Structures are given as C-alpha cells and as structure tokens.
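**User:** Hello, beginner here. Are you able to go through the protein record under this note? It all follows right here:
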Amino acid sequence: AMAADWLAQGLTRVGGIEVVDARTTLVTGEVVDKIPWPFKSRDRRRALAQETGAGIVLSGRIYRDGDSLRIQAKMSDAESGKLLRALTTVSGPVAEPTKVLDMLNRRVVANVAQAMDTIASSLGTYSEPPSLEAYEEARKGVEAYFRQDTLVFAHFGRAIALDSTYATPVVLLAFSRLYRGYYDEAETMVARAHQLRERMAPADRTMLAHVEAGLRGDGDALLRTSEEFMRVTPGSAESPLLVASTALATGRPRLALAVLKVTDPDRGLNLAGAFYWFYRAGALNDIGQYAQGLDVANQGLRRFPTNGSLISIKGESLLRLRRFSELDDLIENAPTGRTSRIIAQARRAHQFATICRTEGLEKDAHRIASTWFARVQASPDTSMGARMARISLLSSLGRWNEVLPMVQEAMPRVPKENTFLRRHLQSVAGVTAARLGNAGEVARLEAELAAEAGRHDFGGSKVMRARIAAHLGQRSRAVGLLQQALAEGANLTVPFNIFERDGLLLPLRGYGPFMELLKPVG
C-alpha cells in the first residue's frame, strides 16, 4: 500500500490523467470479487481496471534479498492485458525504503507520461525514460525539431545532461544533427549512442541505423531503415513523415504519397510542423499534378502561413499552371518569417526565375530576375544574404562581368565553418570564369573543389564541379560528376531533386542523360 500511495502521489505530476489510488483499488477489488464471472473478466487485474475505468494498469512485485530491496514493476494495457513495458528493476537498502520508492517513482512517472503522450506519440516506442524531467526535455526537443526551432539541440542536450544513460535523446540528437547538416557532430553522437545500445528499444536502434545510413550516404539503406522505423512505431503520426521524406530524396514521389495516406495531418506532431503538407504538395508537383499540389500547399499555409518551404511549393505550382499574376503577388507579399523581407523576396524571385527557364519561359524569367535584382540592388542591406541574392539574380540574368566582382567581394566574408556557402561561391566563380573564357581560373577553382572533398562531402564538391563543366559545354563530364555525386549521397537529406532546381545546371537541360537524372523512379 505504501508503494501504491507513493506512486499515486507522483503520478499527479503527469497532466491530463486521473489516478486510481490504492484505497479505491482495494474497495473496488472487494466489489469485483463479488461480481459473478460471466459478468467480469477472468483476469482479476483486468476486471479491476474495467470497473475503475483505468487505461493503464501498474503492477509489480517487491522482493527482499538479504539487506536489499528490489522492486520489479510493469505497465499493461487495461483493456487487452498486453504488456506495454517492463520497467527496469530498482533496488536499494532495506533500511531506506523511501529511496527505493523514489527511484521507482521517477521511472513510473516518466513512463506513464510517455505512454499517455498524444502529441509526440512515437516517443512511446523509444527507450525507457529515467525521469519525467529528462523525458520532458526529449519531448521538447522533438517538438522543436518539427517547428524547425534551433532550440532542438539544447533540449536534447539537457535531456542527456539529466541522465547520461538515457539513450533516446542521444539518438535523436544524432538524427537532428544529420538533417541539419552538422555531420561531424552527428558522428560524435552516433559513437556515444553505441555505448548505450543495450539500453535501447527497437525504435532507438532503428533510428540509429537510419542516421548511420545517412552518414554513409547510402540511399537504399536510408529508405529501408525509415520503413523499418515506421514498422516498429505502429500508430505513430510522425514516422510516415520520415518515409515520405526519404522517398522524395531518393526520387519516389508516389511512394511518399502512398505512405502519407496513413498519417493524420491534424494529429500528433503534425500540428507543430508543416512537414506533412510540404511533402505531400511537393510529391504532387513531382508527378505533374500541379493543381492538386497548389491546393495542398494552400491547406498547409492556412495552418503555417510563414512556412518558406510551402510558399516555395505554392509558387512552383502557380508558375507551372502559368498563373503569373498570382506568382508576382506571392513574391511580393508572402510572409517572410524571420528573414529580411527584401532577401526573402529576392530568393523567391531567383527560384521562380530558374523554374521559368527550365520551362523555356525566358521572357518571364528575365522579367522576374531583372525586377528583383533592381530592388535588392537599391536596398542598403549589405548582409551576406543580400549579397548572395544579388549574385544569384545576376547569374540568372547572365551578367557575368558584374557577377565576378561581387563574388570576389563576398568570398572573404564567408565564415570558415560554412563549407557549403564557400563551395557554392567557388562554383559560381568557376562558372563565371568559364563564361568569360578564363581557362586558368577555371582549372584553379576545379582543383580547389576536388581537393576540399572530405569525409562528409556526400558528393557536394562534384555537384559544384559539374556546374562548371556544364558551362564549359562538357555535358558528358558534367553528368558523370552528378552520377558520382548521387552515388555518394548528394541528395539524401533534401526531400526534392536538387538538380531540378539548380539554376547553374541549366545548360544541361534537354541533354538526355541529364534528363534521366530528373525522372522519378517510383
């Protein structure tokens, strides 16, 4: 009775639940014992739960082993009797039973909170949380990831600091680092996760395998582990999103659409982030269903009006439907979130001008790019974002003599740790040199890009070199570089075909082997 009272008191910390205390259970048990068996379950605990209206039954055994006390507890589903989780045994000296009960209380409270969580539902299939505080930080980390909030790393870090043996936040921090492009940090967390492997549930181990596949650049394994993760997290509203994302990254929009049918956009963490709407609208656009893609994007934007990815998908749908007045309005007036208004507008203009050119709409591309270059050029903004917007729009306009000094001015300002931006500018400089006929500069920049390809390059340097080769007219070499880049994992953490939207690969449009790289495979 003391243990039951202790747990009942602790469980009051879990919001949204009612606890049937020990005394009520005792009285109800006497009532249940008098009910004829045809009118009750033959399993007394199940009958007791049904009588009290309980959803989860906590039960266990207390053992004395010499001067030690051991408690084994478990959680079962009241209706089916199915074991939900056998909790880690807690033990301590017989002389200090309250210390043992405190340990048990922390674990029970955390596990009940996890089991009853209707938002981060997939967390219920991860490893046993050691305390409510650690679980709450892990939960906040998952929510932050879905909101695309940079606090994601801090929350997982705090969960780990609260209990270094808690495997789930270690794995999820590795996952978050991978998909945010912090590959060295992801690798560090993977190594730490392996030390906790014996404490992992199937969901932890599968997610760890998924991260390792990503760090290897193995697309087939990335998709396979995402599907396995969905299998070991039944009923999760979030796990189908991982399959959809990986399907889109590997060129399978129809698979993405199929798997999204099994999740509810108005349930779980889909309420916190726009991933469902972005993946579904993007997949519809990828198979040419632009009107449906536009409708889905609009539905998503009603829920998440500042989401830049949905705004981009909507603009792509409008453009391919030739609804240019609405596209112009979107560029001008769509919400910009935390990004500077002129920078967000200029980025959209460059993106849509590029798509116009892929559609052969050169006049529209020129109109959009020239209008917005003039506006961003007139802006006093001297940030790196504004500089890159000017460079991108000038490149789209083919004004290479003006691009060159802007690139030369921007390059020394790139932070040392921003490898992607530095390589991107190197490729723009290489394309500019190719267009201006400076063979020596082209050779120097290509050599730099080749030399910088490191362990976590994932073919990125080859994509940059392919851009230069495309503008040299070396189409076969450019496609060969792109094929190598794909084999190394160039597209795996981005849920769309990066080549389709790359304005510096436009000289390859219409070239058969390149067009094959753009086709969906499933």
